[in-house]
Write a structure and sequence with these properties.
Elements lengths: L8 H6 L2 H4 L56 H14 L3 H14 L4 H13 L3 H15 L5 H4 L1 H14 L3 H22 L5 H21 L4 H13 L3 H14 L7 H6 L8
Helix pairs in contact: 3-4, 4-5, 5-6, 6-8, 8-9, 9-10, 9-11, 10-11, 11-12
Amino acid sequence: MRWRWLTIGVIVAGGCQTLLTPTPKPASSSTVAAVPRLTPPESTAPQIAATEAPPRTKAPTPPTPTPTANAGPSPAPEDDALTLAAESLGRGDEPTAAVHLGAYVRQHPDQLMFRAQLAELLLRLEQTAEAKAEFEQFIAAAQSAAGPVRGHVVHCHTRLMEIAQRTDDPFAEAFHRGVGLVLVVSKLDATGATDDASSREEIVYLAITSLTEARERRPTDPRAALYLADAYDLAGNRRAADVTRAAARNLAAPGALTLTESMRLGLVVTKY
């Protein structure tokens, strides 16, 4: 099926062209977008200067350092990790940059955009399993966030769909395509970015088709049912949405849903 409506401006603005196009052949590493460069903190990396070797005589006792009022604080190890990652990227050493950036992300799990950069870098290095795990952790944390972090979730579902294509995982490919499209339409509806009803209906139809395929491939997956219910809501089919959402609630098992998804199904109650 050809989707001539895929080139409309609202889709370009939503950044979901890949979600809407037919399944391509697995992309090579050269097709992965360039990893954005990190900006190192100012002058946090220790400077190492070369010195001449001392003569072979008894070394004098080193003087005890005297603290001065002008001495600044030593760079923290986590700042060093980020600086080293930036420096490694600057000289084109991406494997080393991934090691340092990974250390920083482990020390600062709340810095979600750095986790997104790490995921992109790992994908570029063809460390597919590691990249997948980072994208999934980003999504789980970003679902309850706002601003640019929340807006990056669609991109991460697109990346996970591409990973599924590479690894021949038809369930994950259909699931992440469908979820990405649900999120795009929800955002367009919230912002009033498009009044093209026919195009919106086409996107919702494709979301329902993809999530239905995912649910057929894995009938016991509660996430596939939850987002299919969202797609039915977008289509105005409240009865199907209620039935499918109830099925998602019945299928839910510990660890099968993110915290935000569990809250949406009423399985977790927060106390204020």
